[in-house]
Amino acid sequence: MVDPALHQARELILNVSTAKDAKPIIDCVKDIPVSKRSHKLTEYYNTAEHLASKGDTKAISVMLRVLEYFGNFSHDRMLLHYIGQAAANHALHELKSEDHPNHKDMLKAITLISMAFADANKINAYLGIK
Fold first, then answer.
1. Which of 120, 32, 125 is nearest to 84 (CA)?
2. Which of 9, 22, 82, 101 gives 65 a disulfide partner, CB atoms 3.0 to 4.6 angstroms apart?
3. What is the pTM of this model?
4. Residue 72 gets which letter from DSSP?
5. How far is CA 106 from the centre of its chain?
6. Is the pLDDT reported for residue 117 higher than 80?
């Protein structure tokens, strides 16, 4: 049975991108021999922290789609945290780079962060993690 909190969190992340966004990366990884594919996907996942620090929520969402396509669900919980971090960093960048911040984008970022961490808290509660 799929954990409902994790499923909800995954859907939240996937809503930031489309399958079309992930297709070029999927096609590239498909061409890698199966014996080396896992290593390549791990290398790809290892870029998540950098993407989050840049505020690239879409890239984190695409990463989730790519990993999902290849049946790798081991990083789902961390990608939930990374997308929250990315949204926060994007919001901070918006605040610093604009004379008049785009309040609609700011509200979306703050809402995404709130939802992501609420889902993370649900997941932790479900798993008995305090």
1. 120
2. 22
3. 0.75
4. -
5. 18
6. no
Tokens of 14: 């996937």
Give me 129's structure tokens.
């993690």
Residue 6 to residue 94: CA distance in whole angstroms: 29
Place of tokens 């984008």: 105
List the chain domain ranges: 4-127
Residue 59 CA from chain centroid, whole number: 7
Residue carrying structure tokens 């498909």: 30
The C-alpha atoms of residue 111 and residue 114 are separated, in whole angstroms, by 5
DSSP 21-69: HHHHHHHHHHTS-HHHHHHHHHHHHTTHHHHHHHT-HHHHHHHHHHHHH
